[in-house]
Fold Dual OB-containing domain-containing protein.
Amino acid sequence: MWLFEIFKKTRHQVVINHLTRMERGYICVAGIDLTTLQHLRLVLRRERLKTRFLTRYGGPFDIGNIVTFRRCRPRLRPPHVEDCLTNTDQVTCQAVADPAQFWEILKNISKTSLKDIFGSSLQRFGTSCGTAAGQGEASLGCLRLKKRPEIYFGGHPERPRIRLRLTDGELHVDAPVTDLRLYGEDHYSPQVNLIEEIQQKIRTSQGLILSLGLTRAFAAAPDQAPVHWLQVNNFHFHEQPVWRLG
């Protein structure tokens, strides 16, 4: 009986709302626990999560997928308190979320303030924001904005980077966009033709919710302290809540 109790406590049914580009060949995946409505991030015990685990390649991960995590062990290292350690053989896709229900979940958990998501230790660093290493109440969340953000290309012309200018009324932020759906077949190169399409959706949508995250801590320059930087993980639009990578 005690083994069954342990199993119950370490089994989570999660709807995926973070699907993030990492280094070439790798992704980050997180979702909302359908029981607790808290975020969980999948972290593998023995390897990094590769793109081959995407649904398009026969794996369990895409936006809106309802996925079961079994035999999970939490790893509470602030601000990444959502980390859930398991192995890929303990992860299965059960279904795809109903779009209306998925949107309601996103609305129910979303906040209108960045500090309400990440805590009072969130602060400006240059044109962006983040928390000092090891600080912060969370590293994942969803944000609703009163003012529409602006997506654009930044960085060097030969290596453009997708970025988003946004404000919650207190913090004005210029953050990188790591939404995997905005990158090409290599899951690394930005799809230039999609950016204007996304900006048009931002201008006209009846509702936009952003899935946001804080990075692992790193220093932007050798003489600077490491920071958990804010990034925009995914866009969710009212008209197409379950926008899948496919």
In short: Residues 2-100 form a domain with the OB fold (Dihydrolipoamide Acetyltransferase, E2P) fold (CATH 2.40.50.140).
